[in-house]
Amino acid sequence: MHFFKDHGFIDPHSSQIAPRAAYESRRDWLRQVALAAAGTTLGSFATRQAHAQAAPAGVALPGVRSTVAGALTMEKTTPRTDATSYNNFYEFGTDKSDPARHAGALKTRPWSVVVEGEVKNPRRFDLDQLMKLGAMEERVYRLRCVEGWSMVIPWVGWSLSNLIKAVEPTGNARFVQFVTLADPAQMPGLRSSVLDWPYVEALRMDEAMHPLTLLAFGMYGEVLPRQNGAPLRLVVPWKYGFKSGKSLVKIRFVEKQPRTSWEVANDSEYGFYSNVNPNVDHPRWSQATERRIGEGGLLTRKRATLMFNGYEPQVGQLYAGMDLKKYF
Ligand SMILES: Nc1nc2c(c(=O)[nH]1)N[C@H]1C(S)=C(S)[C@@H](COP(=O)(O)O)O[C@H]1N2
Ligand SMILES: [Mo]
Predict the structure, then answer these.
(1) What CATH number should be reported for the domain holding residue 291?
(2) b (16+ CB within 10 A) / e for 14-47
(3) How far apart are CA 282 and CA 308, in angstroms?
């Protein structure tokens, strides 16, 4: 039997700082490394328990079972306690427990989302108007973080294609950018230059239009907790988690492939496509296996990572003819 012994679990994401940022802010960098080193598995487990209560009892947000192919994995869902206390949301800090600790005060109403760029109907949506553009569905997706851990989360939302159709992209729209709120008054993590703020992610238009690409407003049958990206976030289940931006305030349709925050931070490690691929290792660690959060302790066997995170039947054809080793 092959058991995996967890290393001290230094968060590779947060120990990865762009050279430029490191020069400009060495003190910040040292603080990041200290934080990452402090975040051992045992340490963060303790803090996780301590902050498990930080997720407020949510308001119910039910969704009908999705009929989109592949949208309902039968795998055991991750305990809500784990999904709401072990997070990446660097606007609130780089430790896994920071979002649950610091996002509680984020003001999620009133909230609006600006849709602009290459569309016939650019407009600012109030959150309540926006939520009515589609029928809420439950989608149970695997979430695979580039750091080598995964969860199974029951989201509530609808296909982003509902919004895209409503704003009618022009013939020039080839990519879609997703911009997260960047408010230093509410987000203590913005003091660090670990990333270029605001957090910006992007998809190619056909990826954005794919029925599995979800605009999520809830999880576990309730409105999204703030640490998970309230009041709305993207979920792209076949890509590494960082492609799914949280707490979105702007969606922009553009002609040229935009640079994303993680590419700006380090484009030799975080490419534009970043499809989950067990055959292409991160330059500093293997992507062949993953640790399922909430599944046992330190000696739990790792799982094999699946091509396109298990969504290859649905999305594989989007990349026909592309060199998947190149477009990591
Ligand atoms: N705005 C923003 N969105 C973000 C991040 C972030 O730091 N800021 N982290 C990403 C990463 S690395 C992952 S793995 C997922 C984690 O989502 P979860 O905390 O809801 O599991 O959010 C992604 N979206
Ligand atoms: Mo991630």
Answers:
(1) 3.90.420.10
(2) bbbbbeebeeebeebbeebeebbeebeeebbbeb
(3) 15
Question: Do 102 and 92 meet the contact criterion of CB atoms below 8 Å apart?
Answer: yes
Q: What is the pLDDT of residue 57?
A: 60
Distance in Å, CA 26 to ligand 1 centroid? 24
> Which residue, by CA, sits nearest to atom 5 of ligand 1?
89
Q: What is the reported pLDDT for 266?
A: 95
182: in domain: yes
Q: Total domain count for the chain?
A: 1
| Domain-located, residue 206 | yes
Q: How far apart are CA 164 and CA 149, in angstroms?
A: 31
Residue 153 lies in a domain: yes
Residue 266 tokens read as: 């380090």
Is the CB of 244 inside a 6 Å radius of any atom of ligand 1? Answer: yes
Q: What is the pLDDT of residues 93-132, one digit of tens each?
A: 999 999 999 999 999 999 999 999 999 999 999 999 999 9
Check residue 44 and give its pLDDT.
46
Q: What local confidence, expressed as pLDDT, does residue 79 receive?
A: 97
pLDDT at 328: 77
Q: Which helix (H) or strand (E) holds 41?
A: helix 41-51
Q: Residue 208 C-alpha to ligand 1 middle, in angstroms? A: 18
**pLDDT at residue number 302:** 93
Kindly state the DSSP code that residue 3 receives in the 8-state scheme.
P
Q: Is residue 65 part of a domain?
A: yes
Residue with tokens 């039947």: 313
User: What is the domain extent for residue 28?
Assistant: 3-319
Return the residue matching tokens 């959060």: 293
Q: What is the pTM of this model?
A: 0.86
Q: In this structure, what are the phi and psi dihedrals at residue 304, rounded to the nearest 5 degrees?
A: -75, 135
**What residue has token string 């794919």?**
210
Which ligand approaches the C-alpha of residue 78 most closely?
Answer: 1
228 CA to centre of ligand 1 in angstroms: 7
pLDDT in the model for residue 108: 97
- Judged on CB neighbours under 10 Å (0-12, 13-18, 19+), 183 is middle
Q: Tally the C-alpha atoms within 13 A of residue 268's C-alpha that lie toward its C-beta.
A: 6
